[in-house]
Amino acid sequence: MMSNLPIFKVPAYDEVSDQAKTVFDQFQKTVGRMPNLYAVIGYSGNALSSYMAYVQAQAKGSFRVKDREAIYLIVSKFNGCEYCQASHTVSALKAGWTEEETVLLRKGELPEQKWQVLYRLIESVIEQKGEVSVEILNDFFALGYKEAALMDLMVLINVMTFTNYVFRLTKIPIDWPLAKAV
């Protein structure tokens, strides 16, 4: 059945709306190019602009950039998104993680208690469609997190799941160095 799926082409700048072109221009300035995944989201200027506003707003939450990148890697692993594992490995390295740590994060084997708990919580949210045991929640709160951090974590899971699913739907070419296998 999968063979009936359309082949998604990565749209060029002149093939997207003016609304999407604004975001393409921002990526050109900050990254030096438009990553394929965001370009495909740009088929809808509304979807791309809305997504970028959501990402920028959630960056003001409970988790700093290094933690967000780790969370994105874990979410992308559970959602089976090779694209986001690749792109967020690059981002995680820039944020201060080592390549070995990025692999351990995705395996759930980083020894720090915080990452053991976050891994189990993210796994439960994704695998159990939002259900999380009282034990895991208690472990999360025992780390010093409050309800606001839990809601911020849910937003990060949501942000990453969107791009994970876009890649899994479109299967566009990965334009980042591939992440090491776990």
Secondary structure elements and pairings:
Layout: H1 18-30, H2 36-41, H3 45-58, H4 65-78, H5 82-95, H6 99-107, H7 113-127, H8 134-142, H9 147-170
Helix pairs in contact: 1-3, 3-9, 4-5, 4-6, 4-7, 4-9, 7-8
Average residue-wise pLDDT: 95
Helical amount among residues, as a percent range? 55-70%
Low-pLDDT segments: none
Structural class assignment = mainly alpha
Give the percentage of residues in beta strands. under 5%
- Count of helix runs: 9
Query: What is the rounded Rg?
Result: 17 Å
The number of distinct β-strands equals: 0
Shape: globular
What's the assembly state of these chains? single chain
- Major sheet description: none
Order of helices and strands: HHHHHHHHH
How many angstroms separate the termini?
28 Å
Structural commentary:
The protein has 182 residues and is mostly helical. It is built from 9 helices and no strands. It is globular. The two termini are 28 Å apart.
Overview features:
single chain; 182 residues; mainly alpha; globular; 9 helices
Brief summary of the model shown:
The protein has 182 residues and is mainly α. Helices cover 65% and strands 0% of the residues.
